């Protein structure tokens, strides 16, 4: 995840919709809270604005697909997995020195930084269809989105603090009235 963040921020797409923000939450209630406030509510708000301005709403439909996919893979993504590679080791042992050089497949020697460096650029060019010559536009857009993201996050935290204050005030008022 860290390399995705590092190299993704080096070459942000001008088509990115929001600032990269990723957290793993071990508690399902915390996860669901963040899903509602960082995915579903923004999708509803942006799609409502899109409808009011005569544009096609797309976020709700996209987030429904994302959440369906998340539900499908949740069992696999929330478990700890151990894989045995006995057959690969046996195959490696059976190869001659020449074949080992021709068909080298030792993942422990893979330089993951280099892999992700090219992986992110390949995603940008071939999946998103955003050529590398628009990197400066992407960086400008990404800076704006970072400001917007942290503004929204600050407002959410302020709202949470206000809500906690109001709830505590209500209960203390109730207790003091007895």
TrEMBL record:
Residues 39-130 form the Fatty acyl-CoA reductase C-terminal domain. One of its GO terms (cellular component) is peroxisome. CDD domains: FAR_C (cd09071). Keywords: Membrane, Transmembrane, Transmembrane helix. One of its GO terms (molecular function) is alcohol-forming very long-chain fatty acyl-CoA reductase activity. Pfam families: Sterile (PF03015). It comes from the Eukaryota. One of its GO terms (biological process) is long-chain fatty-acyl-CoA metabolic process. InterPro entries: FAR (IPR026055), FAR_C (IPR033640). The chain crosses the membrane at residues 147-172. This is CG5065_8 protein. It comes from Fopius arisanus. The gene is CG5065_8.
